[in-house]
Every structure is written in C-alpha cells, then in structure tokens.
C-alpha cells in the first residue's frame, strides 16, 4: 500500500512539474523585486521615509506573502497525495490569506492617501500616527477575514479507485455541520476582492483626471507665456532696463505640491 501511494504521488508530482517551475520563477522575481524596493526606500530614500511610509511596509508584506504562497504551493505539488499534516495545512492557508488580504487592503489605503494629496492638497492629510493606525486596522481586518481558513481548509482524504489507495491532500474541506458555510465564505471573499478592485479603479481614475487637467493647464500656460515673451522681446528698446513682472496663474496649489506617498 505504501509503495502504491508513493507511485501515485510521484505520478502526480511529475504532472505538476511545469507549475512548480513557474512557482520558482515567481519566487525569485518576487523576492528580488520586493527586496530592491525595501532597500531603496529604507536606505537610499531614508531621509524622506515618512512621506513614503506605506511603500516599504507593502513590500515587506508582499515579500512574506510571496515566500509563503510559492513555498506552500510548491510543497503541495511535491506532496499532492501525501500531505497528511492537517495543522500545518490550516496554518499556512491562514497565513497566506492574511498576507494576501493585507497587501490588497494596503493598496486601497495607498490609493486613498494619494487621492487626498493630489485631489485635495489643502485638506487634512494622514500623519504618521494615522498611518500606523491604518496598518494596525489592516492587520486586524485581515486576521478576521482569514480565520475561517481553520474551518474550511485542511488535510483531506483522497482515493484512487483502481488500486484502492488512500492519500491526503491539503485543500478545502467541508465540515459535518453543513456544506453551505464554505461557499458563503468564498463568496464573501470574492465580494471583498471585487470591492477592492472597484475602489482602486475609482480612486486612480479621479487622480488621473486631476493630473491630466493640471498637465493640460500648464501646457497652455507655457505656450501663452512663450508667445508673450516673444512679443515683449520684439518691442523692447535696446536701452531699456525695465524689469519684467511674471504673474503666475492660480492652480489650486498643485505647483507646490509633491506627489508622493
């Protein structure tokens, strides 16, 4: 029986080799990319770290999520029917979903912060205290959303009818209480993901509109100023030493504003 289980596991793991190769590529790219972001924002841009507080935090969460998810998926591919550690399966699913939800919610907070800086530069902005509070709230919400993983995921028995072999796979399970709750949980997660996507689209569309208007405004003002400067040069007397007064147009304070996190 053990030999049959080993052969079955080897057969399935061979089928999943292409998927495992892609996972390893994701792991290398994710670790390198997020490590570079962390280095740049904590070492090279250290003097301005308060303005860019969310970016290195997001990179750290993404790095942890990348390592957890790819390593976990790789272990499942290597042990497709021999994953009999129920506790490890539940814990890794929980941690993976927690980090994923933190990354997604942090993207929304970053979008809100950018929207306030660009679209409402004169309104009250997030200071360091509220940025830290936002991180704590994101972590708390992610933990609350992810805890049902302990109920709906685990090591599940799988069967091969031809050889009557019994194996164990780390996947979603359904408890004896009902088959409805797992579906409700997945539906709630999908709705939350849809809400996050819609929020990101709305905020960045609003940001794009403001940036486009400002670019068009400055372009028109630059053309108008260039034409007036040419006319003044043509009419200026050779002996004239009069100073030129430049009137800058009102632009909602956007000229003095730095677009940053």
UniProtKB/TrEMBL annotation:
It is found in: Membrane. The keyword Transmembrane helix applies. PROSITE patterns: G_PROTEIN_RECEP_F1_1 (PS00237), G_PROTEIN_RECEP_F1_2 (PS50262). SUPFAM superfamilies: Family A G protein-coupled receptor-like (SSF81321). Its main location: membrane. Keywords: G-protein coupled receptor, Membrane, Receptor, Transducer, Transmembrane, Transmembrane helix. Residues 33-261 form the G-protein coupled receptors family 1 profile domain. The chain crosses the membrane at residues 20-41, 53-79, 91-112, 133-153, 187-212. GO terms for cellular component: plasma membrane. One of its GO terms (molecular function) is G protein-coupled receptor activity. The keyword Transmembrane helix applies. It is a multi-pass membrane protein. Belongs to the G-protein coupled receptor 1 family. This is Neuropeptide Y receptor type 2. It comes from Mizuhopecten yessoensis (Japanese scallop).
């Amino acid at each position: 029986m053990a030999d049959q289980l080993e052969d079955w596991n080897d057969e399935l793991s061979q089928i999943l080799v292409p998927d495992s190769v892609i996972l390893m590529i994701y792991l290398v790219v994710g670790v390198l990319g997020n490590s570079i972001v962390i280095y740049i924002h904590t070492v090279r841009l250290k003097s301005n770290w308060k303005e860019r507080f969310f970016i290195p935090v997001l990179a750290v969460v993404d790095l942890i999520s990348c390592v957890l998810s790819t390593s976990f998926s790789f272990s499942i591919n290597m042990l497709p029917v021999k994953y009999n550690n129920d506790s490890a399966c539940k814990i890794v699913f929980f941690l993976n979903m927690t980090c994923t939800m933190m990354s997604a919610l942090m993207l929304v907070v970053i979008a809100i912060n950018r929207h306030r800086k660009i679209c409402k530069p004169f309104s009250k902005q997030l200071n360091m205290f509220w940025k830290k509070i936002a991180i704590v709230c994101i972590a708390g919400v992610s933990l609350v959303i992810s805890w049902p993983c302990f109920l709906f995921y685990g090591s599940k028995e799988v069967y091969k009818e031809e050889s009557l072999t019994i194996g164990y796979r780390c996947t979603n399970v359904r408890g004896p209480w009902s088959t409805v709750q797992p579906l409700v949980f997945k539906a709630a997660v999908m709705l939350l993901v849809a809400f996050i996507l819609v929020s990101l689209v709305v905020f960045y569309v609003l940001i794009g509109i403001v940036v486009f208007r400002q670019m068009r405004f400055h372009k028109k003002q630059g053309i108008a100023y260039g034409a007036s400067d040419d006319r003044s040069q043509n009419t200026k007397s050779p002996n004239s030493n009069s100073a030129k007064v430049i009137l800058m147009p009102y632009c909602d304070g956007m000229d003095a504003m730095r677009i940053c996190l």
